[in-house]
Amino acid sequence: MQTEVNLCALRAFGTPGEDGKLNVEKTNQLRRYILGLSMIAATARICLWLRQGCNLRRLSSTTYLVTEQAREPIVVPSTEALVEWTKRYLPSQPLKEETFVFETEMAKQFVEKSNEKKKKKADESTALEELNI
Q1: Number of independent structural domains in the chain
Q2: pLDDT of 58-83, one tens digit each?
Q3: Rounded Cα–Cα distance for residues 41 and 28 (Å)
Q4: What segment(s) does the record annotate as region Disordered (predicted)?
Q5: Distance between CA atoms of 36 and 20, rounded to whole angstroms?
Q6: Do 37 and 92 fall within a single domain?
C-alpha cells in the first residue's frame, strides 16, 4: 500500500486577519494542524475490512520524501507523537457554528458553465487535430 501526503496542497490553506489580509501566524497554525492530521491518517495502523481478494499490504516500512530532484528516506514519528504534536495546533477558540444553505440553482449554473468550458475545450482540440497541429 502506498500513501502520499501532498505537501504542496497545504499552501492553499490560509486564514484572513481582521484587515482581510493573510494572517501568517494563524495560517501557519492551520497548516501545521492539517499536516499533523494528514500524517496521523497516513501513518496510523488501521484494519481495512475489504472483501476477499482486495487486501492491501504494506510493501515497505520506509517513508520517502519525494521532490522533483530526489527521493529521500525520512523518519516519521510514531502515531502517538504525531497526535501530541497536532494537539499543539488545535484552535484556541471553538469554531462558531454556522448554517449553510445549498442553492440548487446556483449549483446547476456552475455545472452548466463547467460543461460549456469542457465542450469548448474539446471543440478547440478537435479543430487543432483537423488542422494537424
Answers
A1: 2
A2: 445 556 666 666 677 767 777 788 88
A3: 20
A4: 113-133
A5: 26
A6: yes
